[in-house]
């Protein structure tokens, strides 16, 4: 299985162009695109149903004309409204419009609430500004109709690159996109606006997509499954790594134990919680398979790390926001072990991002901020926090720090300093529960302990975490997550 490539709108345009240059005319691509949409529409419809098609001024509108002609040929009743005038069409849309022999009405005279199905062919990847005036009203009327909506390529009003709403956007039930998904199909809120997304093959070769894509992927197992650790017959626990998780003080120990248990469940051969002296008692009372060591501040950590077998560290959950935590991070980075930094380890650097500039380029390091932690860490760095694209923000932060960035949320983006990135979409809102992020740290560290490189460990960790949460659903608490990991791994590995 190849990893699923995600193409940004500009790259898709380039892939279209290369395909045309290779001998497939643009109108042929458009006919194939329209046919895929018409087939999907037909499956949603009863005989002689009424289909209302909203066509835009560009090539997305051209697809709409193809759909109209094909569905009319199959006996469906078609109303087609155009934003703009037929004489203003350009490119392949001119040819597509000629295939449609029925009337073309102004878009504001379409009766969306009389439709059995609305086909949204207003805008696709060429959306260039916020929707206003007639276009905006048309989208608002489509949404208000309550009728099922099938979007062509993407929901009109959604920015293909960022997934953001440009003024207003169509709430589609389904989307048929072409050749590859675009970032907006995975990033929020675009993912919610596009509904169920299906990729239609219109004859653009995999090599063409590879040549134009910028190493952006959907985070699915095909991206990392071949690298997932599988213990060999002869292997013992010392071959499977040793994860060290730093605990907070006596009243803040749960986060470390959640991470530690997740690392153990993910297959780290050994896991140790390193605890401040005053919290040893409470940690001891709650740990069984996981080992425990006293660790007094940065010097304590430095001392423990003399043991070379400790090859993967988690620092941050409930560690406290202060200079001591910054000093621990410095010790850990200097020790050049695999490292996951989260929560307080990130927030302790609020406004001090220059201290982590290129700090992590020497060893596999993963930073796992949610949006709030990200904004705090990179405060004063508009070049990193201002881009509208979440992918761009993660890319820039990864390049700045030398670490793999896991920018969390319903659309977690994982970006490596070398330019690779993946968008995750398998989670569930039930993962938004106290301690869920601590568990994620443990999964990623546990995978790195077993030798997975940082980017693959981060991607696999985010996916496994998402899958575990989704398999449980309502009532999920962080304690459940570690216990759900074996079920997810079993499906992946057998
Ligand atoms: N041969 C081709 O060119 C193919 C094109 N395809 C379709 O073409 C689409 C991309 O076509 P385009 O690049 O023409 O882009 P779009 O059709 O998405 O939109 C561009 C048009 O909308 C106008 N526009 C942009 N933002 C606007 C706004 N806010 N309000 C009003 N007007 C606005 C632009 O001036 C331009 O006329 C894809 O999404 C896909 O559906 C597919 O059929 C595959 C083949
Ligand atoms: N709506 C959602 N859909 C999918 N995943 C989510 C959603 N909300 C939160 N998550 C995930 O849950 C985890 C929460 O982590 P975090 O915010 O650090 O919580 P905590 O600090 O309480 O552990 C992250 O992995 C995040 O991606
Ligand atoms: K559309």
Automatic annotation (TrEMBL):
Segments forming domain YjeF C-terminal: 220-492
CDD domains documented for this protein: YXKO-related (cd01171)
Positions that bind K(+): 60, 120, 156
Entry EC number(s): 4.2.1.136, 5.1.99.6
A Pfam family assignment: Carb_kinase
Cofactor(s) required, per the database record: K(+); Mg(2+)
An MF annotation (GO) of this entry: ATP binding
Record's cofactor remark: Binds 1 potassium ion per subunit.
Main function: Bifunctional enzyme that catalyzes the epimerization of the S- and R-forms of NAD(P)HX and the dehydration of the S-form of NAD(P)HX at the expense of ADP, which is converted to AMP. This allows the repair of both epimers of NAD(P)HX, a damaged form of NAD(P)H that is a result of enzymatic or heat-dependent hydration. Catalyzes the epimerization of the S- and R-forms of NAD(P)HX, a damaged form of NAD(P)H that is a result of enzymatic or heat-dependent hydration. This is a prerequisite for the S-specific NAD(P)H-hydrate dehydratase to allow the repair of both epimers of NAD(P)HX.
Subunit composition and interactions: Homotetramer.
Name the record gives this protein: Bifunctional NAD(P)H-hydrate repair enzyme
Gene for this chain: nnrD
């Amino acid at each position: 299985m190849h990893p699923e490539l995600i193409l940004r709108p500009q790259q898709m345009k380039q892939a279209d162009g290369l395909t045309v240059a290779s001998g497939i005319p643009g109108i042929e691509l458009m006919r194939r695109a329209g046919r895929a949409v018409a087939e999907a529409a037909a499956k949603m419809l009863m005989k002689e149903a009424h289909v209302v098609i909203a066509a835009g001024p560009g090539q997305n509108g051209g697809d709409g004309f193809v759909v109209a002609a094909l569905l009319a040929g199959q006996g469906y009743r078609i109303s087609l409204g155009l934003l703009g005038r037929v004489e203003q069409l350009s490119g392949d849309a001119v040819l597509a419009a000629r295939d449609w022999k029925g009337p073309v009405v102004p878009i504001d005279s379409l009766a969306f609430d009389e439709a059995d199905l609305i086909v949204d062919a207003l805008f696709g990847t060429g959306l260039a500004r916020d929707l206003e005036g007639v276009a905006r009203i048309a989208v608002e009327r489509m949404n208000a109709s309550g009728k099922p909506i099938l979007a062509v390529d993407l929901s009109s009003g959604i920015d293909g690159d960022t997934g953001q709403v440009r003024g207003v956007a169509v709430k589609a039930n389904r989307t048929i996109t072409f050749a590859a998904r675009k970032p907006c199909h995975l990033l929020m809120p675009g993912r919610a606006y596009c509904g169920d997304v299906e990729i239609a093959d219109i004859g653009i070769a995999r090599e063409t997509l590879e040549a134009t894509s910028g190493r952006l992927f959907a985070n699915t197992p095909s991206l990392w499954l071949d690298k997932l650790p599988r213990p060999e017959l002869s292997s013992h626990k010392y071959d499977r790594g040793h994860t060290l998780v730093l605990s907070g003080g006596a009243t803040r120990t749960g986060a470390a134990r959640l991470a530690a248990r997740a690392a153990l469940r993910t297959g780290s051969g050994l896991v140790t919680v390193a605890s401040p002296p005053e919290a040893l008692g409470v940690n001891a009372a709650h740990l069984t398979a996981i080992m425990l060591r006293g660790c007094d501040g940065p010097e304590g950590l430095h001392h423990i790390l003399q043991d070379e077998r400790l090859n993967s560290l988690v620092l941050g959950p409930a560690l406290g926001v202060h200079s001591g935590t910054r000093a621990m991070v410095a010790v850990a980075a200097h020790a050049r072990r695999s490292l996951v930094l989260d929560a307080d380890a990130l927030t302790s650097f609020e406004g001090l991002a220059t201290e982590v500039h290129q700090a992590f380029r020497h060893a596999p390091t993963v930073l796992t901020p949610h949006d709030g932690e990200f904004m705090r860490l990179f405060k004063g760095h508009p070049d990193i926090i201002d881009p509208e694209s979440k992918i761009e923000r993660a890319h820039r932060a990864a390049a700045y720090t030398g670490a793999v960035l896991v920018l969390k949320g319903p659309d977690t983006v994982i970006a490596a300093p070398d330019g690779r990135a993946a968008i995750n979409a398998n989670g569930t809102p039930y993962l938004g529960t106290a301690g869920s992020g601590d568990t994620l740290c443990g999964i990623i560290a546990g995978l790195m302990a077993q030798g997975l490189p940082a980017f693959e460990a981060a991607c696999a960790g985010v996916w496994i975490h998402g899958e575990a949460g989704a398999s449980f659903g309502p009532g999920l608490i962080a304690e459940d997550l570690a216990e759900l990991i074996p079920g997810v791994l079993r499906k992946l590995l057998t």
